[in-house]
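chain below, 304 aa
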Amino acid sequence: MAAPNHSYVATAIWMLQALLFDAASALARLFAVDSVSNFGAGLFRTLGPLTRAHRVAERNLRIAFPNADDPEIARLLRAQWSELGRSLVEFMIIDRIVADTGRIEIEGLERLQAIAAGDGPAVFISGHFSNFELMAAAIVRAGVKSQITYRAMNNPYVDERVRRIRYRYGVRLFAPKGLEGARELMRALERGESVALMNDQKFNGGVEAPLFGVMAHTAPGPSTFALRFGVPLQPMSVQRVGEAARFKIIVHDPIVLENTGDKAADLKAGVRRINAFIEDRIRARPHDWFWVHRRWPSEVYRKM
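prediction:
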């Protein structure tokens, strides 16, 4: 794969990272699934607090839970590093997890089956909860024809490997970029296909909506698509069962947005409802969320 407009040094670093990724993946496949998961938890519990991301996670937790005392924040930090470590390392063997039906329970599977059978399309929404990769697998395995979106990685060599791993369990991904990417998603909806988007990360220039009582810039895409095509938002989430690589995927009740004719107000209301769903899921299981992302505006962090 070519790496245009980048220096030879940058390309060499990318290739080295890809080789390290290959080595780690090959090593992971030599061990039992739960052993790999446990290793990831221990590794990130140890190394995570030594990184700058630890400070980001701590600030985020204090924004979300201003009344939590220091011991509680410390407990949540440790728990989220364990969960993040498990999920990231599990990705290297995720096809083995998906293939083992005893490891995954789907609550609300009938809703996915109904969408696949013609009760669709829908705009799937979720956040980075636990091993979030499993939600895409569940959508595909249920027979739902869907454009599953993701953000392409900066390193194209690693990105190619990540896509290849996802191919192992049937997931084909689409990385929308700019206006043309949005148009392709709309064309998919016009064809009767669903679209799936993550909606829990900062989106500069997005719609302001509260998240834990603090305004956060949020991507309007899912609400825009749902309102334009008159289709429901279909929330999903995933949670770990116990401390091993066993999971429950939850297909929540659909969210039907009201179309009053006031596009700006309807869009804002939709974004607020999505943020409310995300917040509810985080409050229920705070250690499951991806806390190392700067979710709120920069000025919020500068005040801390």
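Residues 138 and 158 are 24 Å apart (CA to CA). The first strand starts at residue 104 and ends at 107.
thats it, cya
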